[in-house]
TrEMBL record:
Main location: membrane
Cellular component GO terms held in the UniProt record: plasma membrane
Similarity comment: family membership: Belongs to the urea transporter family.
Protein name: Uncharacterized protein
Residues in ANK repeats: 353-386, 454-487
Species: Didymodactylos carnosus
Catalytic activity: urea(in) = urea(out)
Record's keyword terms, sorted: ANK repeat, Cell membrane, Membrane, Transmembrane, Transmembrane helix
Lipid bilayer topology: Multi-pass membrane protein
TM stretches of this protein: 12-30, 36-64, 114-136, 143-166, 186-205, 212-232
Length: 571
């Protein structure tokens, strides 16, 4: 059929076929016989065709998920057709289950009495309701399924159990069902599906109202199941999962009319944890941008209502989060930066110049912020920006040498594309006599024998500047060559001979004639002050945790965000 490959990989065209196959095997005699393979393959394939067909109406026009409707249609087609098939038989005790119908013979009003259930029936029925989704009535299987769902999403696992409990108890109270029906979980599996759909899968789990909606949906599902069971009872058909599908459609259709129910677009459906994270992050961003509510273009783009709908979450996360993160890093606003990162913002988000918060923190020499971004949030220390710079390169270029040992110890390296610039810096610092800068450059991997446009190395320029200590460092610790000839056919020794002070010339000639074992290159600056002496940093962290995570934004942040926001509006 050449359907969308991404949807196939996500299993969207397979789960209905899976349910159809289990339904056919469950309601038919001889499910272990090869004879059942043909109907299973045929009807499973048919479920995909029906899914695509009804998707044109439900998904495209109404924005509704088909849920398991195609599997129910195929299952009903097979069950009804099998009544006339000669070589296929149905299990009559399952197709016409009396346990799935409410009490037929109602007692007189004066004789109405409560039905009591054993503790075993009640508690065994809860996990059995979960297993009944897959046509099994085993409480142990239900527990295993709950554990499997919990590994993927703890919220979905909770709402599966929540639906089983509320559905079973509602059915027992309203209908006075037999104990066997409660024990098998026959009146809870539809509520399981409804609560999972409403409790965070297709709606954002935000506010107490969604809990009330989910509870109400679970009870409504039980009532719908009773009505569907009574409707199908004359023809001996089970309700399958039709009650939960009808209830979910009902709530999804009314979602746009209620501000308390924030629906998730089908293309953005994920696990409830992801929806909640993005909603909290978006709400936090909106609060930070309240100072711009007077801009009509922003209001038109992101809505006039108090709550941002789920449709704008992806746009806000992509366009505004990087701007806020980089602005907070530039302003050293660790509290606001921490709030966004704890809500799931990507610490490696970049602005229009592909600069991450770590780039800006390195440029400003903010030691504590760099520590936090790398150690707490695992920021990428080798992220390259639009100009080819890394955080280590930016820290060096802005003279923040105290950050270089920490960055280097965390795996940061100088960018390969900046080799010429680094060679220029090495030569310039050598001529100036900046020993500290030269030490850091060479320790970070810059070759001391790189030459400038005149073919002169760092040793040439250190000699010309008459910097004896720097010359000694280049020769003894950096493996600088004494025989490199520049474009004027001069070696460092020949340059030294022209100096009025012959100390450097004598040293170089002695080193040439009596070379000693050279020391390995290393950073000679201790890192304990950065890595371990963090008493003030820990105290600041404690004060930040005591403060509220939200607050007013300084005017400096507003000014830094305005140009980027106007660029977004133009786009």
């Amino acid at each position: 059929m050449r359907l969308d490959y991404g949807s196939i990989r996500a299993g969207l065209y397979g789960y209905n076929g899976c349910l159809t196959a289990m339904a056919i095997a469950h309601f038919s005699f001889g499910s272990d016989s090869p004879q059942i393979i043909g109907p299973v393959v045929l009807m499973s394939a048919c479920s995909t065709v029906i899914l695509v067909a009804i998707g044109k109406l439900l998904v495209v026009r109404l924005g509704l998920s088909p849920f398991t409707f195609s599997s129910q249609v195929c299952s009903f087609l097979w069950l009804l057709g099998a009544l006339k098939f000669r070589y296929f038989f149905l299990n009559g005790t399952l197709v016409a289950p009396e346990l799935l119908t409410a009490v037929v013979e109602k007692p007189r009003l004066s004789n109405v009495s409560a039905v009591w259930y054993s503790v075993i029936d009640i508690f065994a029925g809860f996990p059995a309701s979960v297993s009944e989704v897959y046509f099994l009535d085993s409480p142990l299987t239900g527990v295993i399924i709950l554990v499997g769902v919990f590994i993927c999403s703890s919220i979905l696992s909770f709402f599966a159990l929540f639906g089983a409990v509320t559905g079973q108890l509602s059915a027992a109270y309203l209908f006075g069902l037999p104990a066997e029906a409660i024990h098998m979980g026959l009146w809870g599996y539809n509520s399981v599906l409804t609560c999972q759909a409403l409790g965070g899968m297709f709606f954002v789990l935000s506010g107490y109202q969604i809990w009330l909606f989910t509870l109400f949906g679970s009870v409504i599902t039980v009532l719908v199941q009773a009505a569907v069971s009574a409707f199908f009872s004359p023809i001996g058909m089970p309700p399958l999962m039709l009650p939960s599908t009808l209830t979910c459609w009902l709530f999804c259709l009314m979602a746009g009319s209620s501000k308390n129910m924030i629906a998730v677009k089908l293309i953005a459906v994920s696990i409830p944890e992801d929806h909640s994270r993005r909603f909290r992050l978006t709400s936090l961003i909106k609060m930070h941008f309240e100072f711009m509510n007077n801009l009509s273009t922003i209001l038109q783009k992101f809505g006039h209502d108090e709550d941002i709908s789920i449709e704008e979450l992806a746009t806000i996360e992509v366009e505004l989060v990087p701007i806020l993160l980089c602005s907070y890093a530039h302003q050293n606003d660790r509290r606001s930066l921490k709030a966004l990162l704890h809500e799931g913002a990507d610490v490696n988000s970049t602005d229009y110049d592909l600069r991450s918060p770590l780039h800006l923190a390195a440029c400003g020499g903010k030691t504590e912020l760099c520590l936090k971004l790398i150690r707490n949030f695992r920021a990428n220390v080798n992220l390259v920006d639009e100009f080819g710079g890394t955080p280590l390169y930016d820290a060096f270029c802005h003279g923040n040498f105290h950050l270089i040992p920490f960055f280097y110890a965390c795996g940061a390296r100088m960018p390969v594309c900046k080799t010429k610039e680094l060679a220029f810096y090495l030569c310039a610092f050598s001529f100036e006599g900046n020993l500290e800068a030269v030490q850091y450059l060479i320790a970070c991997g810059v070759n001391p024998n790189f030459a400038d446009y005149d073919g002169r190395t760092a040793l040439h320029l250190a000699v010309c500047g008459n910097h004896f200590s720097l010359v000694k460092h280049l020769v003894e610790e950096s493996n600088a060559s004494l025989s490199v000839v520049d474009y004027y056919s001069q070696t460092p020794i020949q340059d030294a001979l022209r100096l009025p002070d012959y100390r450097i010339a004598d040293y170089l000639q002695h080193w040439r004639d009596h070379p000693s074992k050279q020391k390995p290159r290393k950073i000679n600056i201790l890192m304990e002050n950065i890595l371990y002496d963090n008493d003030n940093y820990d105290q600041d962290e404690k004060e930040e945790e005591d403060d509220e995570l939200t607050g007013n934004i300084s005017s400096g942040v507003e000014e830094s965000l305005l140009p980027a926001l106007f660029c977004i509006m133009i786009i």
